[in-house]
Amino acid sequence: MAKEISNKKIVIVGAGIAGLSAGIYGQKNGFKTEIYEKNPVNGGLCTSWVRKDQLIDGCIHWMTGTKEGTDINKMWHDVNAFDKEDVIHSDNFGSIEYGDKVFTYWCDLNRLERDLLAISPQDKRLIKKLISYITKFYRMPLPMDKPMSTMNIFDFIKIGWKMIPYLPSFLYAKRLSQVQFANKFKSKELRYILSRVVPGDGNLYTALYAYGTAVFGNGGVLKGGSSYLVERMEKEYRDLGGIIHNNKEVSEFIIKHKTIIGMKLKNGDVVASDYYVTSCDAFEATRKLLKRKHRDNSLIKRFISKEKYPTPSCIYISYKVDAQALKELNITNTYEFPCEPFNVGNRKEDSVKIRNYLYDQTFIKDGHVLLNVLIHQNDNDFYYWENIRKDYPTYKKVKDNVAEQVKTRIETRFPSLKGKIESIDVATPMTYNRYVNAHRGAYMPWAFTAKGNQLLHNSSVSGLKNLLFSGQWTIMPGGLPIALMSGKFAIQLILKKEHRKIALNK
To answer: Which residue(s) pair with 49 in the sheet?
Structure first.
């Protein structure tokens, strides 16, 4: 347990990665902290659950910060999230079928370049540019040491100087979607496979940065998946003396003279504290907890501009599959193939991307292994699911139908799996909305699109002295490292108010 060197208390809303991060850094810096979580389990969107005796990982497909010595890795170790031995690295970022060929996104860039050139020598210039971008975006320095609002002129000069070699490439890739970039290639095959590096509406930069983390060994996964990560952070927080109140939903902040004087729970109880940190959904925090009384233009303009700032959600279908039959297919852990088109809500899908968990014994039980399918959805799709959820029998029927359609297409592509694959769960955008109050069912904040601008929120709330925002909504495009970083940033801002510097107290 950390030595208490302050008599100040911090209350944190939400026990996701950002909330646990804020709690750990708060405890290590001598504050008394308590976390209030609406659910019986912790982790927020970083979650796992069990269906028909099969563990389902609902979050981690790759995780930035798994390479020892990197800045994000050091932060993961600050919160004791995992050990070096817990990380699993793959030699690829997945495979995709086109026609009668299979293309693999190898983590060996030389091999990737050779494979691309073998398909289309006439696209050599763009292929070289692609390889260059993957390297540049991974190496591009990101300000992670402290919040930008605490930086002085010398900090900005230092960051700007380091950014100069990368800025032209970043600005170019920021303005293009991965589809727009792929369409520049002469080869129809390359246009197809390079438009599907990652799902969703993000720009070229975010797609290649994600790929680059795997290429350079900084985008692995953890043995045990999301639940293991949360368990480790939760244990670290409790060992430091932190307290988590589960099944305690917050209803509003009580504000007087630009200061929060209390936090009201759904059961009517009021909790007092010196500082408050929200680690929940940003829309939930601004519209519900603050009762729309404190306008934040940087957030509001993104909430209302769905074309520039779409929020990604998904249909997340899970199956249990005969492990030996799946192993005999000898395919990569992530594998996409074209299929007969089928409808999912308002969308028509013509491919299926499967992910199997043969690489981790945690997800293999009684001869079966987890296989899941993520089908991209966004803001507009949410309203479809919200509407049919009003009649639960219809909602369940639609979910089951989607799962069956996908299962049929998997069995058509891989006949040896017929009769050896069972649908066990379907999560929709409404699932995310109901369980973690995710705005429009978003599992990540706004996509960093070609039309939108980056967001680096300063974590403060205009007109309030003792409330800080944290969570992945504070920095686009979000994700686990941003959640982790934002928790630390919130404590650093409180320390600044207390005229103290951050210390880990290890």
So the answer is: 56
Tokens of 70: 């990197």
Q: Which of 67, 119, 111, 105 is nearest to 334 (CA)?
A: 105
Q: Are strands 9-13 and 275-278 parallel, antiparallel or unpaired?
A: parallel
Distance CA 220, CA 214 (A): 6
How far is the CA of 179 from the CAs of 127, 203, 430, in angstroms?
15, 9, 28
DSSP for 459-487, please give it: SB-TT-SSEEE-SGGGBTT--HHHHHHHH
Query: What pTM value is reported for the model?
Result: 0.94
For the chain of 506 residues, list the mean pLDDT of each consecutive stretch of 10.
Answer: 72 98 97 97 96 95 94 95 96 95 97 97 97 93 74 76 86 92 97 92 91 95 96 98 97 93 96 96 90 80 87 95 98 97 92 97 97 93 95 97 98 98 97 93 88 83 89 89 95 92 64
Helix crossing, 124-139 with 167-174: angle to 10°? 110
Q: Domains in the chain, start-ordered, CATH in brackets?
A: 9-46+62-83+223-307+449-497 (3.50.50.60), 106-216 (no CATH), 313-441 (no CATH)
